[in-house]
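Input/output pair, single chain:
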Amino acid sequence: MVSKPFKLFCASNFFFASNFLPLLQTYINPLQKIGYLVNSKEFTLIVSTLTMIINVNSVLLKNLETNNLATQFGKLFQTFAPFLKIYTQYTNGYDSAINIVRTLRQNDKKAQETILKMEKQSIANGNLDFKSYLILPVQRIPVLCTTFFSKKNVKLISWHSVIIC
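Output:
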């Protein structure tokens, strides 16, 4: 029987994996291409971390789709636990990234207009605004914790492998 946290994890991973490519394609890459966000070490760090998160979640989603990992939850945790550290990096740089975007919007009228245009187009296509995308990895952390550390799933985890991670 598949646990409720595992179903939540699968659903959130699908949502997460499917929503971060639009973030890069709609906001990050175009803003960097036209010269915004390129001189900021903090934003560069969060973008590279975000790219790693996207890659990890894409692989995880592929594994969820092709394997019966619902019955091998401990193995799933053991495989992906080392990669969860990237969420810490992302979260540590999140406030700086948001402040950079806020400052850019406040101090550069052209940047503000560009981002607003991107957001209108994104929302019209049924996607999220820039800040909503940026907060998603932070919001994902409680889902990961709920999934991996529910009472039912804790019994399935090899704690030796967790300590090694």
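Helices lie at 4-33, 41-66, 73-80, 85-107, 109-124, 130-148, 151-154, 159-164. Residues 156-165 have pLDDT under 50 and may be disordered.
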